[in-house]
Amino acid sequence: MYLRSYLNSPEVMELIDHIVHSDFVKSMKDGTIEDERFRYYLKQDHIYLKYYKAAGDVIGKNTGDDNIRELYNEIGSEEPEFHRNMLKQFGIDEAGIKESEINYTTYSYINHLLRWSKDSSINGMLSMFPCQWSYGYIAEATAAPSEKYLFWFDFYRSKDYRSITDKYLEILQKEPLSTYQEQIIKFGLEYELNYWKECYIEIK
């Protein structure tokens, strides 16, 4: 099965539906999520993005494909700045975020990315793709988000963000996925779902 077909499969559609309708995403959409919960998410995301970039750097360094190398040169050019702006907006000192604050899902997800980035360029990309794809899917599937978090939805449904997702798809669509590669994507989406769940329940 090719990637686009797999993304439309029942098991992927079920997972992405759970993500879109998770408590965190729903409360971000209607603007009712507490600032403290969103700050917790931002801190986890800050730690995650550090290792997401590290995984991308490994792929970019080891690949012999110029298109993959160009993609990973492009990835990270806008999102880190957007993320730093969110940290400032919610009063978080970037230098004060400690890796000891990492939760179990973030820790496990990071190791998933690093493991596959060292395996092969394509498998590394497949491990990273669920994050890229699901954020765009959430933003595009959410109608009339609240003014408070509109900036988040606008960024992840922007033309530039979609362009990166399309480049991922163009590269990863060239060959059919093995059953094992489908599992890499599925595991990534399960990490995404658990990430949203844990960011919501961690703050009581």
UniProtKB/TrEMBL annotation:
One of its GO terms (cellular component) is cytosol. It comes from the Archaea. Residues 11-198 form the Thiaminase-2/PQQC domain. InterPro entries: Haem_Oase-like_multi-hlx, Thiaminase-2/PQQC, Thiamine_Salvage_TenA. This is Transcriptional activator. It comes from Ferroplasma acidiphilum. The lineage of its organism: Archaea, Methanobacteriati, Thermoplasmatota, Thermoplasmata, Thermoplasmatales.
